[in-house]
Amino acid sequence: MTPGPQSTTKDLIAHLKSVRDDQQVRTMARFAIATETALGISNPTLQKIARQIGKNHSRALELWQSGMRDARMLAIYTADPGKMTSSDVQSWAADFNSWEIVDAAADLLTELPDWQGLVAHFADDDREYVRRAAFAMIAGACVHNKSEPDATFLAFLALIERHRGDPRNFVKKSVNWALRNIGKRNLACHGPALACAERLAESGDKTARWIGREAIKELTSEKILARHRKSPAA
Prior knowledge:
mainly alpha; 70% helix; 0% strand
């Protein structure tokens, strides 16, 4: 049965299982995606299904509760951010177990009215994937939240410096990602982000130095500098 707006959670899970791709599961594992419950369905395919079935928040919550990787990605794509409660957010965060799920959820969560407060809350959480969510949200919002004032992102530089020494792989990479995206956002953000990166690069902490040096590489690249020179504010 082709998925559609009337498809139930049971219908959708049955459909997902029917198109399982074991080769893709193995490929996902090579990219450090948690595959214990994965069916190997590509994100473009899941996004196509999401367009076919449309938003349905209660069904999205049921899909999430299934615990299946592919169903959870479909839940993220079909949840309604306007209906996400604090309880929903905390329940999902408690289940974060893969960078892929976290990064997809982060884009959804930056649509919530209090997304900035959620960033601070997640950053203070010591769980690796929850803390990653904070910085993935910053990175995503730099790109998607076009109307957000630059001051919002510049304020996040202090949060980046606060967590510069967290050596866990999925945290340090997200901190670096957030810093790079702030610097790439526009010319006004570039200078402060680069200055932050330079401070980190001179740190006595190994993780902070890596974050800073990797950010400097991109923020001083000719591609980024040329883009900013062409920007209206230049």
